[in-house]
Design a protein that fits this description.
Blueprint lengths: L5 E4 L14 H4 L13 H13 L4 E8 L8 H8 L8 E5 L13 E4 L5 E4 L4 E5 L2 H9 L3 E6 L15 E4 L4 H33 L1
Parallel strand pairs: 1-2, 1-6, 2-3, 6-7, 7-8
Antiparallel strand pairs: 4-5
Length: about 210
Amino acid sequence: MTDKIRIFVDMDGTLARFHDENLYLERMFEKGFFRDLKPFSNAVDAIKRIIDNHPNVDVYVLSATITTPYCLAENAWLDKYLPNVDNEHRILMESSAGFKSLCVPGNYMYKDDNGKYHIKISENDILIDDYNKNLEGWERDGGTAIKAKNNINHRGLYGALWNGELIDVTDTADSIVERLTEIIVSREKGIEENHYNEDDEELEID
């Protein structure tokens, strides 16, 4: 695993206005549905600015796809709205594959004292997602989770409200960038402190 900061951004409900479409649960199996989704423009702009202004941060799109060939049109959507995320930084996983941490480059498996296997990722791996279940799984596996509050979620209608880090993807791009930058800077300080402590330990050993 690397200590480099990596941001993994969900697509549907975070960058793309998936739930705004009428009968979206039925229509998502139609040709052109994913390709033609409207963006959360400010959120897309914010991610572009994070990529441009933080060259030491790797930004990935990490999206779960359903079993239809039309879902792969999300690549065409990214080509149109977020072309500075190249193909190597686009992870389109099968929705049946399980938790998103399974698809993180450099993750590893470990076995607990009860013989059960778990995925481990770094706390410097940041997921931005609109779905609490994905965020909870990400945190359980060691990552840092940020809830993407959109125009329909985070109302407390189903289950408990997310009480961790949160950004509003309907907010201004400036506000989204400011909050993400605060989180990035905080993680960078954590990396520096960790390296400092490791150097101290090496000096003590010598």
